Amino acid sequence: MHSANYFPHLLSLLITNFKMSQYYQANRARNIYNPKDKTPFKLSRSKIDLFVECPRCFYLDRRLGVGRPPGFPFSLNSAVDKLLKQEFDIHRRHQTTHPLIEKYGIDAHPVAHEQLEQWRENFVGIQYLHQPTNLTITGAIDDLWINSANEYIVVDYKSTAKQEQITALNQDWHTGYKRQMEIYQWLLRQNGLKVSDIGYFVYCNGRTDREAFDGKLEFDITLIAYEGHDAWIEQVLNDIYACLQSSDIPPAHPDCDYCAYVTARQSYK
């Protein structure tokens, strides 16, 4: 269906059913792709992931300004990330090895790269202009280590609260984590860095087996290695460019819950 016919009805459904007070604005005018504009268009790592999840949701978001309803901020996760950064930064300043790295026998230590603070900053991050598509790809990393072969190592922090110990990336949603790692590795390589294929997830799992809260939450922390493969990124960027250039809304991904909801909602006009 052409966007001119489909968009007004879908927008009406989204406004009616998904509005979340000040947390959701159904129609945005910011950072919308214009096929006629020759200025490089900034595309974040999360938007690449959105395209992989569902081309239709991506098109509505970046081309028409109708984003998915956001989840509420995970302030506790952000607090864990901040504290981990501060903890690893102590070892970065002193050029020492963090106990977690020693525990797992990893050949690495936190590296004090001159651009690390910029690369960590949300909405700035690592940037690279992909010339064939005129897309500026961005992504903000959590941490950067280096090994004895002078290869940079991408490190990402994750936090959750599960009964079982987390030792592997074996759940459905972990696919997105893997893509995230691979995009970061690709971005650093495009910026001229020698990057290890192996990245690490520092996974913090909140413990619920204590007798009482007592004003503190304890975590089990595991280090999970992942071997990234970024060969898929080039083709996906070309596919994204073709999608953004089109005047037609693409089909939904069959597993997209958001599009499934809209389809189901249309049965109850």
Structural write-up:
The strands form 2 sheets. The chain has a 5-stranded mixed β-sheet with strand order 2-5-6-7-8, sandwiched between helices. Strands 1-4-3 form a 3-stranded mixed β-sheet. By secondary structure, the chain is of the alpha/beta class. The protein folds into 2 domains: 3-71 and 235-265, no CATH class; 75-126 and 139-230, no CATH class. Helix 7 (174-190) links the parallel strand 6 and strand 7. Mean pLDDT is 89; it is low at 1-20. Helix 2 packs across helix 3 (55-62). The protein has helices at residues 3-18, 45-53, 55-62, 75-94, 99-103, 116-120, 174-190, 233-245, 257-265; strands at 41-44, 109-110, 126-130, 135-139, 143-146, 152-160, 198-206, 219-227.
N→C terminal distance: 19 Å
- What is the strand tally? 8
The helix/strand series, from N terminus to C terminus, equals: HEHHHHEHEEEEHEEHH
Total of helices: 9
Shape call: globular
Number of spatially distinct domains: 2
Q: Output mean pLDDT.
A: 89
DSSP strand (E) fraction? 15-25%
Rg, please?
Answer: 21 Å
Low-confidence stretches: 1-20
Strand order of the largest sheet: 2-5-6-7-8
Label this structure with key terms.
269 residues, five-stranded mixed β-sheet, three-stranded mixed β-sheet, 9 helices
Q: Topology of this protein?
A:
Blueprint: H1 3-18, E1 41-44, H2 45-53, H3 55-62, H4 75-94, H5 99-103, E2 109-110, H6 116-120, E3 126-130, E4 135-139, E5 143-146, E6 152-160, H7 174-190, E7 198-206, E8 219-227, H8 233-245, H9 257-265
Structure at a glance:
38% of the residues lie in helices and 17% in strands. By secondary structure, it is an alpha/beta fold.
